[in-house]
Amino acid sequence: MSHAIQERPVTAAPRRGSLAHARLPRWAPAAIAGGSIVAGIGIGAAAGWQSKVQWGLVAALLFVLVTFALTTKVEGSRQAKDRVATSVVWVCFVLAVVPLLSLAWVTLSKGLEVLDGYFLTHSMNGVLDAEAGGGLYHALLGTIEQVGIATLIAAPIGLLTAVYLVEYGGGKLAQAVTFFVDVMTGIPSIVAGLFVLATWNLMLGFGPSGFAGAMALAILMMPVVVRSTEEMLKLVPNELREASLALGIPKWRTILKVVLPTAIGGITTGVMLAVARITGETAPVLLLVFGTKLINPNPFEGAQSSLPLYVYEQYAVGTDAAVARAWAAALVLIAFVMILNLVARGIARWKAPKTGR
Fold first, then answer.
1. Helix axes 320-351, 77-111, angle to 10 degrees
2. Distance in Å from the first CA to the final CA of the chain
3. CA-CA distance, 335 to 351, in Å (whole number)?
4. 316 in the Ramachandran plot: left (φ > 0), alpha (ψ -120 to 50) or beta?
5. What SS3 state is found at 250?
6. Nearest residue to 162 via CA among 222, 112, 216, 251
7. Measuring CA to CA, which residue among 268, 260, 249 is closest to residue 346?
8. Do 127 and 319 form a contact (C-beta atoms < 8 A)?
9. Is the Cβ–Cβ distance between 147 and 275 less than 8 Å?
10. Distance CA 190, CA 338 (A)
């Protein structure tokens, strides 16, 4: 019996498998980035390059190459390719963020020199463009009215068009609407301005007004609203529609009470982004609104001004006072668009369906 039982050979404790390889320390990417920046500055200074952009490009190239070389030596070629891909993503991110931060910094530093309560509450009435003083109240009022009217025109039309395409459309009419929406998405703003100028002003005989500019802005806004709303409606699960229809609720009421409330957060965000897209347009306003130094609260009669047009006019004057007013107006325009985006995000988060219990 004892002979039948054979002792098993004792094996040594398992060592780490072959999957465990040497790895670069966690601080290696930061160290490589710092060294690449120093090397890029040194190469640029030694070569006599005046542009800091060239220094940055050299530093980015060195960062990618050094990362690939070190990772290949320590971790192998397969891991090196992964790290290079990650490095390229970070480089592209930095290349995208740096101009934005530079633009924000320059606008803030130059715009805050003139921006104050007086500048926001007064117009350019009685002030020469070459002189100091004046404000942008007339331009801010014109922008709010023109963008508001354009939103009242474009948002309902775009929303109803998207509802038709998602919930009802499926034939040749839907294909034609989709085609024209795609075409309208890519038209230049000057084309929309020329269309309104030819029909509203020349054929029908109306003069320049804020409403004419608002119609051109609405043309530019509609395809953005249609596309964003269409995508949001497609994200609504079909199970919600089927459950509502199974209870005997009509389709129009299902859309009104189930589909739209579910997608209202994304729809609101899309509308606000479309508003931000048209707020900075200058060409339609220049053709149809003409611009004025006076405060005109009536958008349906007489010339008006707007923030983009005000920036263009003041910068074209070229004097120090006018350029300073242009920077301040640009800062107000950026703040206006930023506030719209923040409001859109807040509404989207507030109206978003709750996923938890």
1. 120
2. 65
3. 24
4. alpha
5. coil
6. 222
7. 268
8. no
9. yes
10. 25
Q: Which residue has the tokens 């009536």?
A: 298
On whether the CB atoms of residues 317 and 225 are closer than 8 A, the answer is: no
Residue 339 half-sphere exposure toward CB, CA atoms < 13 A: 8
How many Å apart are CA 43 and CA 258, to the nearest integer? 62
- Which residue has 């459309």 as its token pair? 169
Q: How far apart are CA 45 and CA 47, in angstroms?
A: 5
DSSP alpha helix (H) spans, 112-209 = 117-121, 137-163, 172-185, 189-196
Inter-residue contact 123 to 295 (CB < 8 Å): yes
Per DSSP, 300 falls in state: T
- Whether residue 330 contacts residue 259, with contact meaning beta carbons closer than 8 Å, is answered with no
SS3 330: helix
Half-sphere exposure of 238 (CA within 13 A, CB side): 2
Specify the DSSP class assigned to residue 248. Answer: T
**CB-CB neighbours of 357 under 10 Å:** 3
Asked if residue 28 lies in contact with residue 68, where contact means CB atoms within 8 angstroms, the answer is no
**Strand-pair partners of 304:** 290
Per residue in 302-355, pLDDT tens? Answer: 889 999 999 998 988 888 889 999 999 999 999 988 888 888 778 777 766 665
Asked if pLDDT for residue 20 goes beyond 60, the answer is no
Q: What does the pLDDT look like over 47-64, one tens digit per residue?
A: 888 777 788 888 888 888
Q: Name, in order, each residue with C-beta under 8 angstroms of 15's C-beta and a sequence gap of 6 or more.
A: none
- The Cα-based distances of 24 to 61, 72, 76, 101, 137 in angstroms read 20, 10, 11, 32, 58
